[in-house]
């Protein structure tokens, strides 16, 4: 077993299992006996006639097991005549993987049953195989069960229970199972909505992975075969559930790689996980090929593969989380409870203890919990992608130095405002601003000082604008301000406030303070403005007139005004 701590942990875990099993297990029948191996597998008529009555050997525990070579006979008897108010029930619980035939008094007619049969008693859930016995059942009336070959890999527990007591416990089971299934269904519905809107394949992987998990749970409990039209699945036995488990494992690898961004964070481990998908696909195909006899080797092979890929997935997720993947952290949080329950389940199977209720419910509950956590992680992933998209959008539209709109973005806003103003016949104003003597500032104090001046001017302009106005850097030291619904008076008031605020700016450079001013040209939309570009040209003409008149002033464009090339060159 290794170090003392390992032995102590295993002992503690086993004691917990023993205690839980002692509390959760139903009361055993008064006696259960089996025909030993040397008795062979006699015919049913001889056993029921009592020819082998003395050959049966009592068992210490009420557990049924099969044999690879023969069908094993069991006999169940009460210690005293049945006297409870409710009818007696024969309850066989556990994962039935082989042929089970029951012979019930008084007629002892052979009845072959599995949890996959469509015609089981509808009064009970399929957590166990339940058979109603005669109310006058006597201690001398035996009940026979035959467990056929191949061997039953997991022990089956058998007991005789009171109808009323068992039905109350079964109702609790249905409530718990329904709550867990409802949580899983709700998460799947949420993720389906995410996928319909976003069309991100990671949501599709999760839908497939979690959906196959639900099918596996329903197949393992037998509830899948109680659905309308599911009777056609009964001849397939537990194969649909096993196929669903293999597909869930395969799709979970796809999901983990995409969700946790393993290809970027841990490329080598991501490649290993990617290769691990193909054995699952091969096993899922082999399951439906009878000549390969998959029932004899496939379950253990699948469990061994799962024992390899699960730690590999956890290692990859842990390393990706350490390297900054938030989604890998969500994955770890969701899978760790399931991993812990798996360890306890393996211990329970190795020791051969009955399956306690908390462990039986722990698996579907941990799957529902994982679905909730992963759903939160997918929502976080979507939010993170949205933030990255918004950041990219901002970088594409905003000037990185001043934080205002860049040239392309402000021109786009201007075109929209121009079209709206034309359609609604409302006013539109445009300001063209230029920082005075900017070249001198750059030449004298350097570009860093020039950048500081541009940032200060952009802030001053922004402070005087209305909420519906747009400010953009047109290029160099030039800015455009789009003024929707602004007539001449409003445009001039805004421009003058900007000019005055700019004169109050002081920018430190080389131990001195720079005093800044701006020149502003105003253009207004009228019938002589055929395009947004014409409006910019008009504002530009007014700006150059402001420059020509001495700078630090606001000038409005006059209809029909032009600036000759010499003036442009002189005041550029």
UniProtKB/TrEMBL annotation:
Residues 426-559 form the GGDEF domain. It holds the Pfam family 7TMR-DISM_7TM. The chain crosses the membrane at residues 176-197, 202-219, 239-257, 269-289, 301-318, 330-351, 357-379. Keywords: Membrane, Signal, Transmembrane, Transmembrane helix. It catalyses: 2 GTP = 3',3'-c-di-GMP + 2 diphosphate. GO terms for molecular function: diguanylate cyclase activity. SUPFAM superfamilies: Nucleotide cyclase (SSF55073). Its EC number is 2.7.7.65. It comes from the Bacteria. One of its GO terms (biological process) is negative regulation of bacterial-type flagellum-dependent cell motility. One of its GO terms (cellular component) is plasma membrane. PROSITE patterns: GGDEF (PS50887). This is diguanylate cyclase. Its cofactor is Mg(2+). Residues 1-24 form the signal peptide.
């Amino acid at each position: 077993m290794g170090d003392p701590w390992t032995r102590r942990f295993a002992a503690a875990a086993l004691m917990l299992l023993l205690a839980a099993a002692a509390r959760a297990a139903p009361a055993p029948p008064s006696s259960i006996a089996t025909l030993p191996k040397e008795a062979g597998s006699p015919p049913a008529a001889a056993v029921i006639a009592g020819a082998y009555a003395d050959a049966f050997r009592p068992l210490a525990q009420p557990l049924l097991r099969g044999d690879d070579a023969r069908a094993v006979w069991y006999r169940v008897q009460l210690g005293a005549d049945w006297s409870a108010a409710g009818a007696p029930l024969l309850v066989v619980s556990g994962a039935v993987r082989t042929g089970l035939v029951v012979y019930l008094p008084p007629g002892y007619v052979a009845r072959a049953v599995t949890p996959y049969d469509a015609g089981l008693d509808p009064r009970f859930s399929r957590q166990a195989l339940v058979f109603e016995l005669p109310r006058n059942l006597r201690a001398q009336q035996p009940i026979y069960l035959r467990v056929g070959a191949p061997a039953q890999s997991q022990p089956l527990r058998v007991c005789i229970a009171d109808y009323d007591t068992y039905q109350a416990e079964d109702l609790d089971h249905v409530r718990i199972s329904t709550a867990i299934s409802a949580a899983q269904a709700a998460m799947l519905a949420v993720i389906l909505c995410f996928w319909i809107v976003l069309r991100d394949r990671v949501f599709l992987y999760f839908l497939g992975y979690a959906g196959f998990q639900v099918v596996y749970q329903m197949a393992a409990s037998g509830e899948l075969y109680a659905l309308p039209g599911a009777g056609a699945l009964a001849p397939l036995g537990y194969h649909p559930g096993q196929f669903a488990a293999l597909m869930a494992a395969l799709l979970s690898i796809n999901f983990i790689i995409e969700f946790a961004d393993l290809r970027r964070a841990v490329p080598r481990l991501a490649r290993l996980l990617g290769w691990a998908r193909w054995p699952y696909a091969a096993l899922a195909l082999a399951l439906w090929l009878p000549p390969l006899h998959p029932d004899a080797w496939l379950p253990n092979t699948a469990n061994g593969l799962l024992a390899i890929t699960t730690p590999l997935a956890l290692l990859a997720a842990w390393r990706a989380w350490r390297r900054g993947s938030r989604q890998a952290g969500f994955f770890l949080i969701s899978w760790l409870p399931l991993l812990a329950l798996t360890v306890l389940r393996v211990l329970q199977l190795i020791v051969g203890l009955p399956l306690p209720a908390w462990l039986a419910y722990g698996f579907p509950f941990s799957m529902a919990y994982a679905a909730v956590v992963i759903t939160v992680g997918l929502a976080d992933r979507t939010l993170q992608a949205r933030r990255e998209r918004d950041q990219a959008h901002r970088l594409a539209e905003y000037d990185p130095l001043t934080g205002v709109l860049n040239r392309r973005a402000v021109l786009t806003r201007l075109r929209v405002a121009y079209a709206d103003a034309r359609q609604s016949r409302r006013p539109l104003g445009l300001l063209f601003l230029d920082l005075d003597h900017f070249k001198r500032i750059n030449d004298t104090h350097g570009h860093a000082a020039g950048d500081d001046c541009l940032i200060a001017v952009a802030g001053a302009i922004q402070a005087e604008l209305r909420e519906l106005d747009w400010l953009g850097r047109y290029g160099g030291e030039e800015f455009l301000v789009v003024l929707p619904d602004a007539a001449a008076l409003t445009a001039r008031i805004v421009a003058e406030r900007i000019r005055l605020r700019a004169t109050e700016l002081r920018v430190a450079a080389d131990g001195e303070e720079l005093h800044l001013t701006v020149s502003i040209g105003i253009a207004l939309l009228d019938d002589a403005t055929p395009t947004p570009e014409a409006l910019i040209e008009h504002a530009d003409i007014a700006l150059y007139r402001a420059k020509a008149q001495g700078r630090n002033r606001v000038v409005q464009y006059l209809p029909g005004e032009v600036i000759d090339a010499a003036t442009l060159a002189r005041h550029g």
